[in-house]
Structures are given as structure tokens and as C-alpha cells.
Amino acid sequence: MEQQVLSITQLNEYIRGRMDADPLLNAVAVRGEISNYKQYPSGHHYFTLKDEASALRCVMFKGNALRLRFRPENGMKVIAVGKVSVYPRDGAYQLYCVSLTVDGVGDLYVAFEQLKKKLAAQGLFDPAHKKPLPRYPGRIGIITSSAGAAVHDMLRILNKRYPLSRVYLLPVRVQGAQAPGEIASAIRYANYYQLADLLIVGRGGGSMEDLWAFNDEQVALAIYQSQIPVISAVGHEPDVTISDYVADLRAATPSNAAELAV
Questions:
Q1: What pairing do the DSSP bridges indicate for beta strands 55-60 and 45-50?
Q2: Parts of the chain belonging to CATH 2.40.50.140
């Protein structure tokens, strides 16, 4: 019986078909340490996962990479979920990664620490940059949600403690994908038109995810670049955000911000 002779392409396609039919390989989660991490201009991410004895090539395409909440780094221990298949051109199998999480700690915590380290190195937290608050602000701008309890508490306290001050509300979304852009734009708007002598930027309490807009780099840069002094008033006393580090003064709560303002 004559032995069948396959082309390289035929063999690779056969192997891929067998692997693609395996339920385990179609939805597998693997734990390992990142090495050789590279992000290409296409937006695709390529890396290797390794343990003490083995290594696995991985790719994360742009659509999935855009959902990452942290910046993967070499040496980081992660759990990768995806599909193992063969790339026919090279005849090599790899993990097509659809999600990547940090092993042992939350993604948001890692993202927070990464951004905090980055902005600290850029000098955004430098005490020398912080501006003094006006003793008697004639105009106070509040950048927060118009629907939350926080704005009503601040208005009540400001009116009671210093009714001579004019208060301007710049309503924004304070959580969700659109919130960071709206908050940053409101800060820049207040500066461009010199609407206030002092800005209070914040919201009431919530989970770390709820407060995440105030851990956004564009919000941090807007606060840092503001010529108007900024009080950060996010959440409750235990809640600390990137905005708190950048602002000229951190308040424990929105109500406390109103007290500090006047």
C-alpha cells in the first residue's frame, strides 16, 4: 500500500483541525509568567507564558487587548483564557488569548498602582506644584453629577457657611466609559472661561469600579494643568484615587470638601 504524502500545508491544516475539535483546547485557562511581551502598531499583543519547565506562545488580538484594564509587563504572573490552535504558516501552536487577568490580585488594583507609579515619576504629585486655596472664594465650581446626593450636600453646606460665594455646577457623568472625558473637559472648560476661583471635583461613595473615572490619566492631567485650585472629593474617607494625589487638596468626602472650601 502506497503511503500518502502530504504537503506541509495539508499536515498543518490537519493538525489544526484536530486541535480545533478538542473541547479542552477551545476554552482553556492557563497560569504562567509573562515574558517577551510586545505590542505591535497593529494593536496586537504577542508574548510567551512560562512556568518552571515549559513555555507557551500567545497572541492577543487588538479587539481583546482593548479590554485590558492593566498594562501587562514581563515577569507578571497572570491567568490567560483562550483557544489553543496551530498557526499554519509557521506550523507552531499558540494560545489565542481572549482575556488576561493578574493572578492573585485584581486588575483594577494593578492598573491603579501602574498609573500611580507613572504619574509620580512625571511629577504630577509634586507638592511644589500644588496651589494654595483662596481664603474667601467668590466663585466656586462644582464638577460632579447633578443627580447624586453629593451635590446637594455640598450646596447646602456652602450656602450655610458662606452664602456670599456664587456656586456654579458643571454637571458630568461620574462613572462609566464616558465619565473621564466629561470630567476632564469640564475642568478645562472652567479654566478656559475662568468660571471659578476654586473647583471641587468628585462624587459620592461607591466601589472601586464605581470610582474608577477618578483614576483615569486624562482626569489626572486636567487637574494637574488646571490654573484654578482643585479640591478632590471622591467617595468616603478610606477611598483614595489618583485624583486625590494630583489635586491641590484632598477632602475625605464631598461634604468635607465644601467645608474646606469656605
A1: antiparallel
A2: 8-107
Residue count of the chain:
262
Is 0.90 topped by the overall pTM? Answer: no
pLDDT number for residue 237: 86
Rounded Cα distance between 198 and 146, Å, is 18
Instruction: Please provide residue 155's backbone torsions phi and psi, each rounded to the nearest 5 degrees.
Output: -60, -40
- How many C-beta atoms lie closer than 10 Å to residue 134's C-beta? 16
Q: What is the distance of C-alpha 240 from the center of its chain?
A: 14
3.40.30.10, 3.40.1280.10, 3.40.50.2300, 3.90.1150.10: which CATH number matches 127-261?
A: 3.40.50.2300
| pLDDT bracket for residue 191 (50, 70, 90) | very high
Give the span between the Cα atoms of 39 and 256, in whole angstroms. Answer: 44
- Secondary structure letter of residue 132 according to DSSP: P
Asked if pLDDT for residue 1 goes beyond 90, the answer is: no
Beta strands in the chain (DSSP E): 28-39, 45-50, 55-60, 77-87, 92-102, 139-144, 166-171, 198-203, 230-234, 249-250
The predicted-structure confidence for 146-172, as pLDDT tens digits, reads as follows 998 899 999 999 999 999 999 999 999
